[in-house]
């Protein structure tokens, strides 16, 4: 019975029917908080101290910001990502314009702008891998039924991906996680949704789930272990497509269950909209007269 409920919930989490006068922009990602660093983004397998990050950036939170997909009306136009306090590290593809919007040093803020010439469903001529994205990860990220984007530099891809280093201006910049001198901690007053993963010997199991949803109290260490995209579906509240949530979970599942994270307990929880908007904002301006609807879904991941 539970399996039938989960399957029905996951068939398509976008409630509204497709409006071909509207462009839908969907974005997902994660912010990980460990004893060593803060990492924000889509790819858990990139070392925050890897070669493309110079040493002076190692003490900053690193924003590996999510995958952006486009649906609905065909369009051409410009897509902009604004980093309010920080700077870009990596992008796929490289933007047409990357400009500083900082009012004065040492504060840093940037805009990255991609010119999209055309949208199509033709997946011919997509590259096999990038220097910062493996072929396996590309296969996962290309699963959602989004448009293929033709860019101004001649490249083609089903998504836009970017990474940036963030400079938090307050201890609650990533609420419900609080940044303190002793590291990142979950706000003791937080009563929202969360999953607890714990290490038991050489394995990692889901210990329990918290939140106001029909899955609360159902998932246990001995219960069904194939329902995580359905949990994300419930958390997203009808704002994302099921294929996006499956891709999101497939991206992070190996990292969660291999137990390479520090500590013995891992919390996974949805970040609120106001936290997401404080980190970055996104906007699409189309050459056609289209409405644009944005959906952004992020996870916080905290180990201790």
Low-confidence runs of at least 5 consecutive residues: 1-9, 48-60
Number of helical elements: 5
Determine the oligomeric state from the structure. single chain
Task: Report strand %.
Answer: 35-45%
Strand element count: 18
Q: What general outline do the C-alpha atoms trace?
A: globular
Q: Main beta sheet, described?
A: 6 strands, antiparallel
- Mean residue pLDDT: 82
Distance between the termini: 35 Å
Main structural class: alpha+beta
What is the rounded Rg? 19 Å
Proportion of helical residues: 10-25%
Would you write up a description of this structure?
The relative contact order is 0.23. Strand 14 and strand 15 form a beta hairpin. It contains 5 helices and 18 strands. Helix 3 packs across helix 4 (242-257). The two termini are 35 Å apart. The strands form 3 sheets. Strands 5, 7, 8, 9, 10 and 17 form a 6-stranded antiparallel beta sheet that branches. Strands 1-2-3-11-4 form a 5-stranded mixed beta barrel. A two-stranded antiparallel sheet has the order 12-13. The longest helix has 16 residues, at 242-257. The chain is 16% helix and 38% strand. The protein has helices at 2-10, 135-141, 228-236, 242-257, 273-279; strands at residues 22-33, 38-41, 62-63, 67-72, 77-83, 86-92, 97-100, 110-120, 148-151, 156-157, 160-166, 177-180, 183-186, 194-200, 203-210, 265-270, 280-286, 291-303. The model is unreliable at 1-9 and 48-60 (pLDDT under 50). It has 304 residues and is α+β, with helices and mostly antiparallel strands.
């Amino acid at each position: 019975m539970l399996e039938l409920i989960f399957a029905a919930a996951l068939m398509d989490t976008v409630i509204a029917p497709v409006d071909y006068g509207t462009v839908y922009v969907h974005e997902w990602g994660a912010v990980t908080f460990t004893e060593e660093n803060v990492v924000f983004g889509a790819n858990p397998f990139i070392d925050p101290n890897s070669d493309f990050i110079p040493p002076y950036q190692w003490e900053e939170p690193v924003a590996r910001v999510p995958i952006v997909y486009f649906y609905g009306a065909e369009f051409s136009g410009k897509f902009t990502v604004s980093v309010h306090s920080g700077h870009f590290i990596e992008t796929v593809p490289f933007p047409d314009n990357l400009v500083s919007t900082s009012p004065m040093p040492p504060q840093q803020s940037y805009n990255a702008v991609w010119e999209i010439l055309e949208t199509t469903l033709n997946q011919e001529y997509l590259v096999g891998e990038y220097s910062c994205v493996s072929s396996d990860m590309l296969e996962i990220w290309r699963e959602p039924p989004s448009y293929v984007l033709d860019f101004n530099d001649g490249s083609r891809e089903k998504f836009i991906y970017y990474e940036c280093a963030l400079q938090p201006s307050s201890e609650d910049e990533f609420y419900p996680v609080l940044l303190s001198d002793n590291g990142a901690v979950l706000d003791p007053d937080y009563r929202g949704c969360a999953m607890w993963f714990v290490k038991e010997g050489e394995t990692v199991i889901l210990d329990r789930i918290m939140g106001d949803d029909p899955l609360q109290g159902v998932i246990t260490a001995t219960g069904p272990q194939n329902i995580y995209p359905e949990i994300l579906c419930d958390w997203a509240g009808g704002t994302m497509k099921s294929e996006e949530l499956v891709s999101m979970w497939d991206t992070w599942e190996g990292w969660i269950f291999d137990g390479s994270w520090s500590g013995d307990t891992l919390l996974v929880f949805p970040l609120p909209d106001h936290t997401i908007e404080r980190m970055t904002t996104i906007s699409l301006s189309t050459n056609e007269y289209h409405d644009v609807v944005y959906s952004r879904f992020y996870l916080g991941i905290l180990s201790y």
